[in-house]
Predict the 3D structure of the following.
Amino acid sequence: MMLFETCAHMQQCSAEWELAGESVALVPTMGALHEGHMALVEKAKDVARHVVVSIFVNPLQFGLNEDLDAYPRMLERDQAMCLKAGVDVIFAPSVGEMYPNGFSTSLHIADITESLCGASRPGHFDGAATVVYLLMQQVMPHCCLFGEKDWQQLAVMRRMVADLMIPVELIGVPTIRESDGLALSSRNHYLSEAEREKAPVLYKTLCVTRDAMASGETPAHALEEGKALLEKAGFTVDYFIYADGVTLKPLHHPQPNGRLFVAAKLGTTRLIDNLAA
Ligand code: PAF
């Protein structure tokens, strides 16, 4: 496995693979890897000859009051996990390498970035889209993999790839969960022991709400009951919405493309999850 810290090295390797006609899959991450990321790597190995995992804590996607400095960084441990999983290259550039002095470009993906997490994290998805575009420029992948836990991020990337006609196949990989249902996330590290015990209520509430809708309750009523369950368990709910899985527009009646989306805080830790319903 190789570790590249510069864009020049990454580009040179991509050019060699391109010349040899070999396919490449990119798994973009911010490190602090867990089994959810490893599921992306496993899928990447199925679909491409080479797998590149990028590890870059992207300042552009953190708001002023967010956890950029506190975000977990554990490159050595991440490297060991990637080596064991059969990753070909880790691309771990510095902030200066990705955003040299004078960097002033930002991609803005309208509409789809404004609802759900975009409403309380303005600029977040533009920052994520900008860095993913830049990473794609270095790695030149044939496909790029994202976890479905961050469903809105995946929808934003699909919009960007379609609008900018980027010749990359995007692959969404189903959410990996702990045995109690909690979706794996690097942010789970922040939960205290007591919060960790309560955290699975988020997924349980999604399931209860989906089942209530399947048995005939309106989305509005089922969501209201679900929100009450979350608040009773100690969550502060940011949003709990039933929306179209592609456009992310709210739905008032159950639809085949419909999904439940939730974001809620336990203490200072913001958790998100989603489920087809
Ligand atoms: O999902 C993430 O970890 C990040 O948003 C991504 C896609 C690596 C861009 O920084």
Notes: The chain has two domains: 2-173, 186-271. The beta strands are 2-4, 24-29, 50-55, 89-91, 143-147, 169-173, 236-244, 258-266, 269-276.
